[in-house]
Amino acid sequence: MHRLQELSAAGEFEEAEARARALAAAPRVWGGDPLIVSWLARSSAATAAIRHGRGAETLPELETLITEVERTVEGGPDLRAMLLGLRSNRVAVLVQQDRCTEAEAKDILRAITRLAHLTEVRDTELAALINLAAALNGQGRYEEAEAIARGNLTRADELTADDLRHFLARSLNGQGQYEEALAEVRRLAPVGRADSGTVDLAKAQALHGLGNRGEAEATARRALTACEQLLHPAHPRTQEARTLLAFVTAEDPAPE
Question: pLDDT (tens digit, 9 = 90+) per residue, 80-98?
Fold first, then answer.
């Protein structure tokens, strides 16, 4: 299972998913409780598919898995933590699909609080907070998203801090605070495959807001190229990059 996580973290989504599905199909070969091993493997496969950009096609499978785990969630805190991770992944997919008002990130955070004294939930909590910030941005609630991102930066590790900083930049762009957004973008580390285009999208938005149309266009084109080359064709970020590029390059309105 650790190897699956390594592959996904390295951007090898196709291989991670294929190996996870093979493990789910024959869990007894690897030992452990067959049902739990299968759930963990299917969860890993869904995570890889979502990071690849195939969240929409994965959502029914993810919801089926959530239902299965919910039926036996009384089995212990580890199963409950896995369920919260699955629900957090569902929130990520809903946000990708612009179904932000359906996201249940706050409910997940409340459940995490009740579970914290029984098992380690820090990573799940931070993932839920990132999803909540994304959902709030998607609803135009930029001040709330900013508060969540800023409030958790100091306790996040480097990678998670970058995720929070990314949504902080987006919330600042949404509030028209382009100089601050650009400053946050410039603090971001180079991204891996799963985050292809994210930095340049936020940067292009800030540059366009500051009136730097030429640089904004070049940056938006770079974001689109990265998305098209490195992500699945169905990834919603690719369409986001196309939409931003079209907006940046739109002709100025004719004078009246």
Answer: 888 888 999 999 999 988 8
pLDDT of residue 109: 85
Mean model confidence pLDDT for the chain: 88
Tokens of 77: 């805190």
